[in-house]
Amino acid sequence: MADTMSAHDRLDLIYENLHERLKEEIIEDVIFKQNRSLKIYWGTATTGRPHCGYFVPMVKLAHFLRAGCTIKILLADIHGFLDNLKAPIELIKYRAEYYRFVITSLLKSLNVPIDRLEVVLGSSYQLSAEYTMDLFRLSSVVSEHDAKKAGAEVVRQVANPTLSGLIYPLMQTLDEQYLDVDVQFGGVDQRKIFTLAAESLPKLNYKERAHLMNPMVPGLSGGKMSASDPDSKIDLLDPPDVVEKKLKKAHCAPREVEGNGIIGFVEYVLLSVDSLKNGGKGKFVVERRKPEEGEPLVYEDIATLKADYEADKLTPQLLKPAITKALINLLKPIQGEYRASTEWQEIAIKAYPLPPPETKKKEKKVKDRGTKFPGSKGGVEAKPDGHVEGEAKDQVNLGTGAEEAMDKLGIEQKTHS
Q1: pTM: predicted TM-score of the whole model, two decimal places
Q2: Contacts from 191-196 at CB under 8 Å and sequence distance 24+?
Q3: Are strands 210-214 and 70-76 parallel, antiparallel or unpaired?
Q4: Fewer CB near the terminus (10 Å): N or C of the chain?
């Protein structure tokens, strides 16, 4: 397809649906003057299970591939470990493989050519002596303040952060050089790291790169969709009944468009996916609840959908079932490929092992001595009024008065003059 597109059309497709672009002149120099394939890298730390939010960058990667770009996907296994141990070191290898299966399947489901796609494992070059030396060099020109600021929206924030959170953005900066790309692509939450890279690489005599950012689609509960927060996301392998249940509970306030993750998913995923699969403009169809209510609502652009939602013509009760149907259909080929691959299933078990069952501590039985006195031969029982009964009552009975009790206990009485 890229062979039949003009340079301007290719650039338009590269820029479509992006949130922000930094140093566009680098991109335009490659497209118009050098007249070669633009080299782009997108990285992901291999932590929790990839979720439906991954469709957003995958759609853009599909656009890049259609526009003739060369793509490198970085499976950042070491980054996953550095980010406050989101990926335990013993699981890193398996999680990277799991991500490889998921991302390849996602792109194949979008019907895009992947012959110009390369998947790179971070640890394949990040442990080299050259990379390590450059990491030391970079750490000598970046302040602790700047490194911490760069990773603030990406690295998990905790009360007592470790030094690994400062290394994370430095490595992401160096990856641009070691992957030999023109552009780094990522979510808008990566902006501070992108800025650090643009400022820092020239200090090591490496060239500055351009940066492209997609918007962050809000999660089901309204915040950021996160792989480590199960309540904010729909897993790519969630069965239809789970997808339906999660979307029913999703935050989707009537008439509110801003920060609405459900509408964001239509805008940045469903319309674009339909366009990629079928060519031309994408369509999103919303069925009426009852036939007598009229024809289905058909949207070919997000502006009309948003206007109808604000006017309450399109309600959450209509939108959610339509999203559910579209998403279940979108997940079908991915889940079908998973069920057909024994290797993928085995990797999934190794990458995300079930937590060990909680072992209930055996409750220590409190011995209830009740009203029995220990040590007695025949046993005795104390009555509410204080007297005792039983075979050995004579051995424990201290009488009815103080003098009798003292006499039985062998306590000498003293008289005071």
Answers
A1: 0.80
A2: 191/20, 191/153, 192/149, 192/150, 192/151, 192/152, 192/153, 192/154, 193/150, 193/151, 193/154, 193/169, 194/22, 195/22, 195/150, 196/142, 196/146, 196/147, 196/150, 196/169
A3: unpaired
A4: C
